[in-house]
User: Fold this.
Amino acid sequence: MENRTDKNSYTIIFVIVMVMVVGALLSFLASEDGLNPLITENRRIEKQQNILYAMGVNDNDEGSAVFVASDKAGEEFSKYITKQLVIEGGNTSEDNNAYLIDVKKEQAKAKNGGTRRLPLFVGEKDGKTFYIAPIRGKGLWDAIWGYVAMDENMVVQGAYFDHKGETPGLGANIKQRYFMDDFIGEHLLSKNGDFKGITVAKGNADPKNMDKTDNEVDAIAGATITGDGVSAMIKKDLKLYLPYFNSLKGK
Assistant:
């Protein structure tokens, strides 16, 4: 008897079988026995690289932004990060897994009335102490995030920014070194000591970024909304750390 494979029933059965096979494969890859451990490990390394980059531990050349190598990230992280802190409800505690805290989930928790955990990383390099905080916000198309390293006076010592889907050559340039380096030396506090943040300003009167006390950096041409997102996440997230920095001064 002729085996007909052009009937609708054959097509339907074939599609069902393929969906089941693909579904089973994806389920396995997402399981503990599949790729999930590898994905988790890659995220851990990436976070360590981001934190180190912000405090100036990187392999930058004259113009490019380059992380420390993946196989050295754990060792360098242990070398330079002396404390991992979690600030929650006015209390501060040490937690060696603070870098694994999901900032997105903590923001959602706070939005729903919960208490947000704030990770803060204390690093030592060349005799200086760095306080590195993660931030997260919204760009033009999707999420943007970063890490900002500060000294005890909330003066920026370094920054790293990244994005999920900003426009190449425009908003995506927030992760270019020339933009991130502009933040070094910028003050987050006003001259009166109030938290003011840093505005990514279009038409900034200081395009060479010589004035570090104006709470502004020059915007990226054609990326106004992404720049506004960077400004907003700096002001919104870093302001939450102000009580901790005040406590360092005994206020």
Observations:
- Helices lie at 8-30, 36-54, 70-80, 103-111, 177-181, 224-238, 242-248.
